[in-house]
Amino acid sequence: MIKLSASRLARLGYHGLTREQTNELLRELYKAGEEIVGLKLGSMMSTAQLDAFEQLFVAGDEAGALVWLERNFPKYRELVQEIFKELDDVLRQAVDVTSRQPEPAGRETD
């Protein structure tokens, strides 16, 4: 299970965020990870598998969908870990880039 938290963001270099900023970044991180996992898994599924999984998803059967994934894609959890590690790397690089940016120059007065 992936744990998304303020401490995870702090380990990636995101310090001094407000609670709202932290929550928004965590929501976006979760959403991005979920979309990437879905795309990768979808590309690995046959049409029949896609139909079966979609039925569980549309029915709102999250527990059943998880069991189905674990049965049909035993390395599902490893894939999720790998994707979130990649997202962590992207976030870490973004912090590195922004921390190297020069401060904006002050406005000059006439």
Account of the protein in words:
The chain is mostly helical. It has one domain. It contains 5 helices and no strands. The chain has helices at residues 6-11, 19-44, 47-58, 62-72, 76-99. Helix 2 crosses helix 5 (76-99). The longest helix has 26 residues, at 19-44. It is elongated. The N and C termini lie far apart (58 Å). The relative contact order is 0.13. The mean pLDDT is 88.
**How many H/I helices?**
5
**How many discrete domains?**
1
- Could you tell me the radius of gyration in angstroms? 19 Å
N- to C-terminal distance: 58 Å
Low-confidence stretches: none
Tell me the total number of β-strands.
0
Q: Report helical residue fraction.
A: over 70%
The oligomeric state is single chain
Order of helices and strands: HHHHH
Shape: elongated
Provide the residue-averaged pLDDT: 88
Strand content is under 5%
> What is the structural class?
mainly alpha
Please describe the biggest sheet, giving its number of strands, its sense, and whether it closes into a barrel: none
Give a short synopsis of this structure:
The chain has 110 residues and is an all-alpha fold. The protein is built from five helices and no strands. It has one domain.
